[in-house]
Amino acid sequence: MKPLKILFVCIGNTCRSPMAESVMKHWLEEYDLNWKVDSAGLRTWNVGRKPNERCIKVLEENGLTTDHVGRQISTMDFYNYDYILAMDEHNLHELQTLAKDPSQERCAKIELLGKYIDRPEDQIIRDPYFSNSMGGFRCAFLQITESCQNFIAAHMYTD
């Protein structure tokens, strides 16, 4: 089985996508899978910056860390990754628009990360950035964790 290459994407690459990157790296280590994982944002707001401090706090509460530095998605990401996993419908639609180039074959499958949760009400991982509490970050963490575990289960032996 060839190692998968996965890119997580949200709007700013400061909360959800770096959280997903860290969670997935943890589970890949647990399952001894040599997959490549990264995250990016659709905007330049956080390029060169560490993830939001609340994201880092939730990761630490769960025994995880991150060394991610924010970056914006690039055209080459559509060729270099097997999966580009969006956090919500807006991210998904923007990624699908960016990927449309009739003259080129894209490698990446663009999907919602939350599609790997069986409960429709939990399939959108809402942006916790403007939340006044840690609750939004903790909720996103739980959704991301379940989605990553289910993604691994669905792809461990199939891709």
Structure description:
The protein has 159 residues and is an alpha/beta fold. Helix 1 crosses helix 5 (135-155). Helix content is 38%, strand content 13%. The model has no long low-confidence stretch (mean pLDDT 93). The chain has helices spanning 16-30, 53-61, 77-80, 89-99, 135-155; strands at residues 5-10, 36-41, 83-86, 109-112. The chain has a 4-stranded parallel sheet. It has one domain (5-155): Rossmann fold (3-Layer(aba) Sandwich). Its EC number is 3.1.3.2. Keywords: Hydrolase, Protein phosphatase. It holds the Pfam family LMWPc.
CATH architecture label: 3-Layer(aba) Sandwich
User: What is the top-level CATH class?
Assistant: Alpha Beta
> What global shape is seen?
globular
What's the CATH topology name? Answer: Rossmann fold
Tell me the structural class: alpha/beta
Q: Which series of helices and strands comes N to C? A: EHEHHEHEH
Number of contiguous helices: 5
Beta strand % = 5-15%
> Helix amount, in percent?
25-40%
**Mean pLDDT score:** 93
Distance between the termini: 7 Å
Q: CATH H level: which superfamily?
A: Response regulator
Rg from alpha-carbon coordinates:
15 Å
Keywords:
Rossmann fold; globular; four-stranded parallel sheet; 38% helix; alpha/beta; 4 strands; 159 residues
List the topology elements.
Elements: E1 5-10, H1 16-30, E2 36-41, H2 53-61, H3 77-80, E3 83-86, H4 89-99, E4 109-112, H5 135-155
Parallel strand pairs: 1-2, 1-3, 3-4
